[in-house]
Each structure stands twice: as C-alpha cells, then as structure tokens.
Specification:
The protein has 400 residues and is an alpha+beta fold. Helix content is 36%, strand content 30%. It has a domain at 5-69 and 119-187 and 279-359: 3-Layer(bba) Sandwich (FAD/NAD(P)-binding domain). Helix 1 packs parallel to helix 4 (119-131) and helix 1 (14-24) packs parallel to helix 8. The longest helix is centred in the last third of the chain and has 30 residues, at 335-364. The chain starts with a strand and ends with a helix.
C-alpha cells in the first residue's frame, strides 16, 4: 500500500493557499494529509466592504492557474478590475509621446492584459475551494517552534504538534520557517518606500494601467472596478514621510503632479499605507523537508506588479513537483525531489529581481545622456516586433 505523507503549509496568504489548493486538487491528493497554519485570523471578504487597500496585479497565466483549481469564478463574480491597456512613460516625456511604451490586449490577441484584485478576495476564493477538500485549516495559530524530529519536522502550535514530511514556508518576508531553519537571505535595500492608497481620478481610467518613471521612483496607477485607481508610489524616504503626514487634499495634489495629470486631478478616496522596499533573495529555497515559496523566498520591486505572480508560479511548480514525486512513490520532502522545484524557480526569480532593480536604477539616474538613451531605447522597444511580443507574453504568463 502506498504511504501517506504529511504536508504542513505555514502561511495562508495567496501563495500558500494556492499551493494548498493545487495539492488538494492534484491526482495524488489521497496520498497527502494537508494542513494550513496561519497566525492571523481567517480572512473574510464581503462585497459590502470598501475595496481593500492591498491589491495585486494578476497576470493572465495566474488567472488561468486560479481557474484550474476552481477559485477564479468566485473572483469574477465578486469584483475585479480588468485592464486591457498599459501606458509607461518617463518623466522627461509624455504619456502619448512616441517614446512612451503602449500595450493593448488586442495587439496580443488576448481579452485583457491582466486583473487588479484585492488580496482578501483571492484568499476567500481559495478558502472556498479548500473548505470543500480534506485539508485542515488552522487560523489564529502562531507557531511556537519548528524543529527537526528524526526524518521529519515537528511544527508546534498551542496544545498541538504536527510531524511533517514536508513544511512549506509561505509565511512572507519575515518568514518564521526560513529563520527557524537558518536559511539566510541577501538583501538590497532600495532606499525607497511604497505609498499605497486609492484615488478618484478626474478623468476615466479607461481600464488602463498607467506607470510614470520619476527620478525618485516609479508611480503606478491601477484601475479598480468601481472607477477609482489604486496607486503604488515608490519614492524616497523624505517624500514618503511627507505623503504619510499630508492631508488628503495635499496628498491628492502631490499624486496629481507626480502623475503629470494624465488622469486629471486625483482625489484621495481611501486609506493610505507605506512599506519599505527591499530586494531579497533566499540563499536556498529548499532543505530536506523544507521548501520556501513566495515572499519567504524572494522579494522584487513592485514597479511591474510581478510579486504575486512569481509566488503563484512558485506554488504551481512545487505542487507539480510533489505530485510527480508521489506518482513515482518518492517522498515529497526528499531533497532531490525539492531541488527540482528550486532549480526551476530560483534562477527565474533572480532574473526578475535583478531586472526590476536595474530598471529602477536606470530610470532614477540624473544623467542627461542616460535619459536620452532611455528615450531611444523605449522607442526601439516599441518597434522591436517579435522581441516586444515575446517580452509582453512572458509578463502576461502566457509564454516563455
């Protein structure tokens, strides 16, 4: 008789819940005893609540992944802001200049370029799937210890222990799992903070994602389903502090000017928050019995909105590796099995991290020569044909 294995996923964010849903829906799910543990309360989405501050840009490939486990239908039935155009420009030019990057869904034969979705809505959709599975979900259950126990890891919460063949750390940037097993990280602080809020634009957002590169960092404006925009403004510490302490009127004026009034005057219409920006990469993604996914393994600059999508790709690859191993009667916690996941994801995530870091630095320079070269480069990219097509399809998650 084939052995059953215990898998504990620590962290019930989007990445952890996606990994759980994929494993619960896999052909080998009967070989797994699956437990999801999170220190926070169970997230609850209500359509009566205002749009939450934390949103993610979900690429087409990620939406298809969520659809494969039965979670996307709930998202679409609630509220989701699809965008079918994207405009990217440098502060030295204009959004409608020949040097601005312009992407339209029709050009790539897709219905949309992506979706803006509240994190809590994605969590709710995935929890709905898991509620109809054999997975055990434990909330408000902080882990007190994670220790090796023979060939397994013992996960201790209040009044209960779990002996896991595999512990999946999906518990974010300050991962308890990563720290407990002494996996180090390399960190590259950007010297920037991301200001996030919702605003009402004077002009319609046209289902377009707008991004302007400024000397202090990029400003992203993402379309919400109710006509507002969600802003992610990556900027220097001094400006970030001003933005946090400004009145709503003052912040609206700051963001209107930063956006070059491309959507007219912007009016603050939601709470605001800020978080420091750091590029981070774990030295290892796996140890025997341990795998890190999502922000526990890596963090990238938010300028291209790829953070959530990278985590979902981690979850997809790890779930497939585990399912394949079980079909071969291998233990999912064995290091040779987990290395297959690490080999596929670590290099790809590193490439994206360094690309985002490089772009951020490139657009932050004061050099007149570099600024002129940027404009020329953006024009060339706009007319690069197959290169442009491939780059965009990779970003959409529909090509490699």
């Amino acid at each position: 008789m084939n052995k059953t294995f215990d898998v504990v996923i620590v962290g019930a964010g989007i990445t952890g819940l996606t990994a759980a849903a994929l494993l619960a829906k896999s052909p080998q799910s009967n070989r797994l005893r699956l437990t999801v543990i999170d220190a926070a309360a169970r997230p609850v989405f209500s359509a009566d609540d205002d749009v939450a501050l934390r949103v993610s840009a979900v690429a087409l490939g990620s939406a298809a992944l969520l659809e494969s486990v039965g979670a996307w239908e709930f998202v679409q039935g609630a509220r989701v802001g699809a965008y079918d155009r994207m405009r990217v420009w440098d502060e030295s030019g204009h959004a409608d200049s020949s040097a601005a990057l312009s992407f339209d869904a029709a050009e790539f034969a897709v219905p949309q370029l992506g979706f803006i979705v509240e994190n809590v809505l994605l969590q709710q959709a995935l929890l709905n799937v898991l509620d109809n599975s054999d997975a055990e979900l434990l909330f408000e259950a902080p882990i007190s210890a994670l220790e090796e126990n023979g060939q397994k890891y013992r996960v201790a919460i209040e009044n209960r222990n779990f002996d896991a063949d595999l512990v999946i750390g999906a518990d974010g940037a300050r991962s308890f799992v990563r720290k407990s097993v002494a996996i180090s990280t390399r960190d590259w602080p950007y010297g920037q903070s991301a200001i996030v809020t919702h605003l009402t634009p004077e002009k319609p957002h046209q289902n377009t994602a707008w991004q302007r590169f400024l000397r202090d960092g990029p400003l992203g404006m993402l379309p919400l389903a109710d006509g507002r925009i969600s802003v992610v403004w990556s900027t220097g510490q001094d400006i970030a502090e001003q933005a946090l302490t400004a009145t709503d009127e003052e912040l609206g004026e700051m963001l209107s000017a930063a956006s070059d009034y491309v959507l007219g005057a912007l009016t603050v219409a939601g709470p605001r928050g800020a978080f420091p920006l750091v590029a981070r990469h774990a030295e290892k993604y796996v140890l025997p019995g341990i795998a890190l996914i999502g922000d526990a393994a890596h963090a990238v600059h938010p300028l291209a909105g790829q953070g959530a999508n990278l985590g979902l790709q981690d979850a997809a690859v790890l779930a497939q590796v585990i399912s394949t191993a079980l079909a071969k009667d291998e233990c999912p916690g064995d290091r040779p099995v987990l290395r297959r996941y690490e080999r596929e994801r670590k290099g790809e995530n590193a490439q994206m991290m360094h690309l985002m870091t490089g772009l951020n630095r490139l657009f932050a320079t004061d050099s007149t020569l570099v600024r002129e070269l940027r404009v020329i480069g953006m024009r060339l990219f706009n007319n690069s044909g197959p290169v442009r097509d491939r780059a965009v399809k990779v970003a959409l998650g529909v090509g490699r």
